[in-house]
Amino acid sequence: MNNQITMTLNTDPLLLQALREDITCEDITTNSVMRNAQTGEVQLICKQDGIIAGLHIFERVFTLLDPDTQIQFYCEDGDEVKNGQLMATVTGDIRVLLSGERVALNYLQRMSGIATYTHSIAKLLEGSHTKLLDTRKTTPNMRVFEKYAVKVGGGYNHRFNLSDGILLKDNHIGAAGSVTKAVQMAKEYAPFVRKIEIEVEDLDMVKEAADAGADIIMLDNMTPDMMKEAIRIIDGRAETECSGNVTRENVERLLDIGVDYISSGALTHSAPILDISLKNLHAI
């Protein structure tokens, strides 16, 4: 996320789109009380314990509006932050500080909320070989930010998009005609460097997927006992992933099953924001 090329290519257009959504022709409120340029300073304060993520995106919002904006950070992405903690001081044209405030905070609060929620689940998996994965259940046009936040929180990214990997789900299997045909067709079509993952819902599908040579078998919405039996059937022939409404409240029931990966859409679609504010704006 700090890489300048990555930021310019992937995030700048999205940040500019968000700013255009919030400012069409002008910020009429700011312009009514600030008729001329005036340098000011405002503090970034955390109002809730959590994991911070997205500080450089927060900064970029302001520097896109005015490259002369300066930010002094007192923490970095991945740090545990506490209620009341001063995390940064932002200095620049007061008009820029006021106009960019909401967009900058929207990104920082959302990304930090995801990092915080991910961290809370990843901690429960410490000591096991199981890795926590995100999904494509992300907010439209927010995927690059949300998946970065998952990594900051201690999780791992599943495929980024449909071009990034092969995942044969129930409707793909239906289109192909069977588990075996779906795997065979994927093997014929896909570049040899791509792994083939397939989603299965019962033990007959597990056996068929393993026999067909799938690289990863996703155990979808199975009971813990079914998943243990599935792992016995697979017997090391494929990596294993379990999914299906996994949350912080129920993930512990999966700890002793022995799957390689646990995927959770909740990391990105259900994480609450982290409460963060810009306060104490004053001229300098």
Can you tag this structure with a few keywords?
284 residues; Aldehyde Oxidoreductase, domain 3; TIM Barrel; six-stranded parallel β-sheet; four-stranded antiparallel β-sheet; 42% helix; elongated
Describe the fold and architecture:
It is a single chain. The protein is an alpha/beta fold. It folds into two domains: 4-121 and 272-283, Quinolinate phosphoribosyl transferase, N-terminal domain (Aldehyde Oxidoreductase, domain 3, Alpha-Beta Complex), CATH 3.90.1170; 125-269, Aldolase class I (TIM Barrel). It contains ten helices and twelve strands. Strand 9, helix 9 and strand 10 form a beta-alpha-beta unit. The two termini are 32 Å apart.
Q: What is the radius of gyration computed over CA atoms, rounded to a whole number of angstroms?
A: 23 Å
CATH superfamily of the largest domain: Aldolase class I
What fraction of residues sit in β-strands?
Answer: 15-25%
Low-confidence blocks of residues? none
Main sheet: strand order: 6-11-10-9-8-7
What would you say the CATH architecture of the largest domain is?
Alpha-Beta Barrel
Mean pLDDT: 95
Can you summarize the main beta sheet?
Answer: 6 strands, parallel
CATH topology assignment of the largest domain: TIM Barrel
Number of strands: 12
Q: Strand-and-helix sequence, N→C?
A: HHEEHEEEHEHEHHEHEHEEHE
The gross shape turns out to be elongated
Provide a short characterization of the protein structure.
The chain is of the alpha/beta class and 284 residues long. The chain contains 10 helices and 12 strands. 42% of the residues lie in helices and 20% in strands.
